[in-house]
Amino acid sequence: MPLSTSPITLAAGGAAGLSGQRNARGEWRPQAPITLPPIACWPPRPLALLKWMFGFPGFLWPMNSLFLAMTLLTWLFLTPALASMQTFELWWIGVLFARNFALVLLVAGGLHLYLHIFRGQGENLQFSNRPLITGSTRTLFGKRFLWGDQVIDNMLRTLGAGVPVITAYEAVTYWAFSNGYIGITGSAASPAGFWVAFVLVLLAAPVIHALHFYLAHRLLHTKLLYRSAHCVHHLNVECGPWSGLAMHPVEQVLYFSTVLVQWLLALHPVHALFQIHLAIFPALVGHSGFEKLLLWRGIGLESGNYFHYLHHKYFECNYGGSLAPLDTVFGTFHDGSAAAQVAMRERMLARRGADT
Fold first, then answer.
1. For residues 66 and 293, what is the distance between their CA atoms, to the nearest angstrom?
2. CA distance 230 to 222
3. E strand segments, the chain
4. Which residue has the higher pLDDT, 243 or 352?
5. How far is CA 318 from the centre of its chain?
6. Structure pTM?
7. What is the β-pairing status of strands 28-29 and 21-22?
8. Percentage of the chain with pLDDT > 70?
């Protein structure tokens, strides 16, 4: 889900001054409960909404602008010419695969090394100081990761299955564009209208991802798909960057199907690539296990998401994200408070009673 950038106030004493608290089990949480964003507030707060979307600190475009920049650089310098992709050929599909493999390895691997190996910011703003699973440690489900190592298991699932799924979607998308099956033609007749539509589709991409993520996620929590596929991702109770795309192949196919929306809307392949990147990189960053990456003089870049951390902890809440606050509509919102915990338990007991 889309992430945000926001400053953190640090006291001179270091970690003790961070805005949050850690319990005896090593779990960190913010001092204040999660609040609904301006997009979910009534009556509307237009100034707060604009700041949330475009300001600094904001939510929507400060961080997504970085992902858009990555998309543009990838399209301009790391993607074969569209005209060369009119027929499926191993060489250009191989280029896409190698490029996707390298980008995921760079982002997820770099974050993992900095945060979990070199401990670049220690335990500051880390959701849980319990280590990622290694050796003979057993998971919540009584199963072991491959070779008993959570990181190795997640890397293999991400690079060995996730990257091929990403590449397959991307290859079919470019082939369809190059053959004129998708995309808008005749834009030269109205260049101004084309560029207005171009920007609007870009702005819509994070919303498309948020809505698709919520709907797909709820589907994955049905009994059949949870037991056969989604439970693999939920082996990651304590998360690291490699957890973000560590999924069963069925879930990866469903998760990255967000690009199918752009088969209907996209005016240019950049739209489709941006949609794919919004599914890749926020997932890697957002599962870092930390609320923020501490940068310079108390400034922090939001790297994780306590909202989604609670989903990994409790499973039955916070299925979506704040950009599309559907959890508040369907009664599955958990703000981290004791009252929300009681409400979640009552909801689960009522559902179990209805199933019996």
1. 15
2. 9
3. 21-22, 28-29, 292-294, 300-302
4. 243
5. 13
6. 0.89
7. antiparallel
8. 86
